[in-house]
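User:
I would dearly like some help making sense of a protein record. Take your time, and here it is.
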Amino acid sequence: MSSRITSLFGIQHPLVQAGMIWCSGWRLASAVSNAGGLGVIGSGSMYPEVLREHVHKCKGATDKPFAVNVPMLYPDIDKHMATIVEERVPIVFTSAGNPAQWTTFLKDQGITVVHVVSSVKFALKAEAAGVDAVVAEGFEAGGHNGREETTTLVLVPMVSDAVQVPVIAAGGISDGRSMLAAMALGADGVQVGSRFVCSVESSAHDAFKQRVLNSMEGETVLTLKELAPVRLLRNQFYREVQQAYASGASAEDLRILLGRGRAKRGMFEGDLENGELEIGQVSGRIHDVRPAADIVAGIMQEFHEAKAALTNV
C-alpha cells in the first residue's frame, strides 16, 4: 500500500511503531522495520552510550529504514543528536518540545524529521519549523500526552485540513479497523504504540505486559498535567498521586512524589504497584503477546479486509 508516508520513509506499509520509553529498543524497532513498517527506537530512557549501542544493533538486524524518537525534554539532547548524526540515522521523531530547536540542524544533515503534536496550533508551528511530517496524537494515547484532551477522531481531520505535510495519526490505533478509520479521517499513515508494548520483542517487563493484557475499559487515566501529562494504569502510585491532589499538592510536591525512575520501575522492572505504568486507552483491547511481525501483518490484513467490506456496502 502506498501513501505519502511510505514514499517519505521508503517503507512498505504506512505503519509506524511508536518510540516508547523502556519498551522500544533495537529488537522491536528492527522487527517492525523488517516487517515493512517503520521501527522506532525510543531514546528518552537511554543514556547517550546506550542509544549508540541500540542504533548499532538495529543496523545489524535490519537493512530497512528505522528511526529514533527524541523527547525535547531529554537533558543530554545534544549528545543524542550527535549520535544520530554520526551514526547516520535516517529519520528522527521529536516530541515534547519546540520543533524549531533541532529541525533545521537535522535536515541540514539530510535527516527526515517528524514532530509529534496534540493540537492544530502545534502542528502549524511544526510545519513552519520545516518538519517533513507530523504525528497527530489524540487524547487516547499512552505515555506523555497533550493537555488539550482532543481525541484522535477530532484531532486528525483538523490537523489534516490545516497542514500541507503528511499526517500520521496516533492514539487508540491497534488494529486494521482503527487504521482504516484514521486514514478515512485524512491521515497518510498511523503510529501504533500500546499494541507493540505487548509484543515479543518489546523490552517491557513481562509483568507489565501481563498487566496490560489484564486491563479493562476505563483503567487508564491522564494525570500530572502540572508536570507533563501522562496516561497511566491505576495502581498504588496513581492512588498516591490522587491523595496528593486531594491534599492540595503543588507542582513541586508532585515532582518530588514522582521522583526519578518511576517509569523504569514500573514498565522495565515490573513493579506494578509503585511504578509508573504508561499505556493507552486501547489497552483494554489487547489480549495477547505476539511477535512484532505478526502484529504488523495482522493490522495490514485487517485493514484490507475492513476496506473491502466497506466498498461492498
